[in-house]
Amino acid sequence: MGQNHNHDHFVIPFKTLMNVCLWLCFYTVLTVVTAKVPVIHHALGPLAPLVAFGIAAAKAYLVMAHFMGLKYDTKSNRIIFASGFAFLGLLFIIVFIDIFTRVLQTNTL
Amino acid sequence: MGSAAGKNYINEFAGLKSWFTSLDHKRIAILYMISVLTFFLVGGIMALLIRAELFSPGGQFLTGDSYNQVLTYHGAIMVFMVIIPGIPAIFGNFFLPLHIGAKDVAFPRLNLASWYVFMFGAALAVSTMFTSKIDTGWTFYTPYSIKTGTAVVTMVLAAFVMGMSSILTGLNFIVTTHKLRAPGMTMGRIPLFVWAIYSTAILQVLATPILGITLLLLAAERIFGVGIFDPALGGDPVLFQHFFWFYSHPAVYIMILPAMGIISELITTYSKKTIFGYTAIAYSSIGIAAVSFFVWGHHMYVSGQSEVAGVIFSFLTMLVGVPTAIKMFNWLATLYKGSITFDSPMLYALGFMFLFAIGGVTGIMLATLGLDVHFHDTYFVVAHFHYVMVGGTLMALVGAFYYWWPKMFGKMFSETYARLSFVFIFVGFNVTFFPQFVLGAMGMPRRYFDYIAPYESLNKISTVGSWLIGIGFFIVLFNLIHSLLKGAKAPDNPWGSKTLEWTVQSPPTHHNFDHDPVVTAGPYEYR
Amino acid sequence: MSTDNHVTTAGKHHHAHHFKDAWHEFISAKEGIWLFMVTEILMFGGLFVGYFIYHMKYPEMFAEGASFLDWRMGAFNTFVLIGSSLTMALGIHYIQVGKNKAASWALITTLACGAIFMVVKYFEYTHKIHLGLLPGKFFAYPEAVSQNLAMYFGFYFCMTGLHGTHVLIGMALITWVLIRNMRGEFDSHYFTPVEGVGIFWHIVDLIWIFLFPLLYLVG
Questions:
Q1: A interface mutation test: which of B242, B300, B316 has the most A CBs within 10 A?
Q2: Is the ipTM of this structure higher than 0.85?
Q3: Which pLDDT band holds residue B525 (cuts at 50, 70, 90)?
């Protein structure tokens, strides 16, 4: 009966899960503060949406890496999941290029 | 060899219920085969109706509205219910496990579920033919698809459901290819048909979800008037086209890649020669799949898309011709100094190469921005995609039927009638569609039920061609059915091919292989 | 039996015949689960792409729409979903270390969090319906400043609606594995369906992580 130690389910430790949860809560508070506290929000100016996106990305990383277990999973599963985001990025970039390089044509007649 | 004497996957379990609850990939393939061929018949009748109407200018027997409905169903049925599922669901299901030495696909229950999901979607689609028939074209462009009083919501839901089936099949095939290869069967030793199905599966998983959300948004637009595609609310109808073609362009590669996989198998088998450039063909399949995601805007050059975007898409579209051409040259090189026999499957393969070359080259013409401004929405486009989808995929599909029929059913068909069917289909196809290149260049618009007098003679020729194609396909059908009833018993390997499915009995047993095959060489070790 | 962070494979689950062993079945199932999750990301992602494009075109209109959303309810729901992700992950953890009863409670807590989320959603929706802030052609709020504010609420209801639908589907799936766990079908060697449902539930959390700032904290 399987002595092969490759056949082991990794158990994510209880402490890791709790830690991740606390960090997620912290980031949530941070994103609300940077958006809703007027002094901070105005100080950020045009960077505000980027900061919000960055915090969301950090939270997303924690969920994907630890709760979904990608950090402890195979490289191929990580590539598979990343490919979804890559193609989404492609769709966004090219549609963006189209919409923001349109030149309004007026009637030449 | 084989389990109890005379037992195979067909006769081992009896009764209809055993077929509708079977987890055997081979039986599921047969379920798909019967449904897809039935839908092909319906879509084909639509085609004949279109061509009959276009025999002469003016209304023959269809009004403008009915004509729009007929052409919409022809497109929607052929695209969503025949060509996209076609080769993967029938031959991918049947032969992928056999090709890699596996007993089944990775998720057999999911496989059966895919078929039921597909049939549910198909039922929804067909139901609209009895309620208010849609007339938007299979592409559902806004704003007409939002305003028309026909059953668009049901139809897009149908397409959504069929898309789910496609995703589940693709997912199944990817995991099967990754995880169920027999010992010694490295990725460098899988048949090129498997590379093709695998690349297709990647497209099915990555592209179809975008179709899903696009169709949901269209439904939301119709029901709630959300505004995302409506200029009155600041929305953009071209955005619909971006979303739609982001899936539908990779979709056309879902249609052609498996066909190319079949051609690789046929060319090498009937040349009795190791395929030339295995690695190049394998990587070109992945390459085509990858590049297919970057080119969708070539459907939109004159839609209102920016010129900058148009130029980018034109350039990228030229690139996709490269891996495609690589395949063609490798097949040619395989034929060179091969011991070629002109069995009917080979005729279809050679026919594919000729017709797909024309289709592909005219695709490059359409990719050229300046030319497309003239050709867009004309019969030139119609001819182009029929050359690649019918002259390409459908020829490969029929070739696959003839090639694999003896293995699937243990019966040989009439070679004479098979060759005759090829003549009717090949000649009929060119008679139908070559004139359409000329018509398009002369400016005849597509999706019109009427036309001016100068287009009449070419339209008449085209319609006669459609009857020849129809006859050809009926010969195929009768030939194959007749073989089931009265055909000679097929040997295990009638063609002398080297891939794994020919090492088992015809038809295969339920478990495919009695013992895991151990693979020590590539799939095409002829000489 | 478990030592440090690993448990060995063996046990009463019988793997399907076309797999070599239970581990082979597990890693194949995992890959299939991840491939399915890619499709979920892409489907939601399409909505996000549409949102980004229009947000860039009509920033004031989106800011006006966001002003009708209560960021406190959104933040509360964010904490609820984060907590539910924790309890979901704990559910799997407990099964892996042989504490099936604790796992059931973790799953029940996850369900409760999902229900709380939907109740808050219900209050948010009724508030908007009451004000006439509805998508597209049903929009009936007379004091709108932006001409096309209806589009914002089209996005709002589509995105949160699709997300909410997935919350409900997730809750149904969690109920299913909860029942199977209570029947003793899972142990440290076999818990693949729970893992799959867990990953699905984390996707629901993941989508909300982006929805919250995009819809509630804009402008």
A1: B242
A2: yes
A3: confident
